[in-house]
């Protein structure tokens, strides 16, 4: 019974640690300033998608 209790505690500690790490990463990524994509990149993506959907139709 003691081994099962130790396993449960260890699993709980790992789960809480992963949750805290996830929240810290999310906080860091959300705090960065937003920089939109350059217009040239958006145009090339649009042309690529148009070409892809033209082949599918």
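Q: What amino acid sequence fits the structure above?
A:
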């Amino acid at each position: 019974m003691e081994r099962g209790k130790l396993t449960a505690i260890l699993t709980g500690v790992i789960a809480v640690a992963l949750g805290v790490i996830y929240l810290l990463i999310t906080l860091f990524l959300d705090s960065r300033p937003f920089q939109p994509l350059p217009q040239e990149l958006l145009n090339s993506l649009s042309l690529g998608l148009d070409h892809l959907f033209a082949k599918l139709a």
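Q: And what stands out in the fold?
A: The chain has one domain: 2-56.
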